[in-house]
Amino acid sequence: MNFQNIIKIVSGLLGVLGVIFLLRIMSLGDDQVKMDASMGDYSSVSPLITLALAILSIAIIVTVVFSVITLASDPKKLKKALIASGLFLLVIAIAYGISEGVETPMKDGEVLSANGSRLVGTGIVSFYMLTIIAFGSMMFSAIKKIIKK
Questions:
Q1: If phi over 0 gives left and psi between -120 and 50 gives alpha, with beta otherwise, what is residue 126?
Q2: What digits encode the pLDDT tens for the residues 5-37?
Q3: Domain boundary among 73, 90, 121
Q4: Same-domain check for residues 61 and 114
Q5: In whole angstroms, what is the distance from residue 51 CA to residue 60 CA?
Q6: Which of 21, 88, 122, 145 has its CB 3.0 to 4.6 Å from that of 48, i.e. a possible disulfide?
């Protein structure tokens, strides 16, 4: 039995399991599920959520494993990936250096720490930096195309 057949069988089994869980929830009805949930009983929905998490985990693991295998098989791709990762980490480090943290009161009465505030600022600044870099690279590419013609 080859790898593709195993994947088809596992996919089919997970699909059938998902349909069974869905039909079980549908047979109970919306009102019963809501009433159970209001009392803290999630037993009708929990198996479907667990199945979804399992499928997501499998997809993530398979993606990471095959990406690493592909990168390891070609040194040029590995070098490009490491350079891109390093540049991404550099952008994050610069954004962290630029960001400031201030203790901030939140709506629920808790206080966001200065470090938490700085991490939020890092995410926002890095988003803007990456947006500018993406726009600049698109413009560079377009201008380069126009010049070549």
A1: alpha
A2: 888 898 899 999 999 998 988 888 888 888 888
A3: 73
A4: no
A5: 14
A6: 21
Count the domains in the chain. 2
Radius of gyration of the chain from Cα atoms? Answer: 24
Residues of the chain falling short of pLDDT 70: none
Cross-strand bridge partners of residue 112: 104
3-state secondary structure 7-72: HHHHHHHHHHHHHHHHHHHHHHCHHHHHHHHHCCCCCCCHHHHHHHHHHHHHHHHHHHHHHHHHHH
Look at residue 119 in the predicted model and tell me its pLDDT: 94
Interhelix angle 46-73/75-98, rounded to 10 degrees, is: 120
Asked which of 73, 105, 136 is the last residue of a domain, the reply is 73
Residue where the block lists tokens 């890095």: 126
Contacts of 51 (CB under 8 A, 6+ apart): 14, 17, 18, 21
Residues 88 and 148 occupy one common structural domain: yes
Q: How many angstroms separate the CA atoms of 51 and 63, rounded?
A: 18
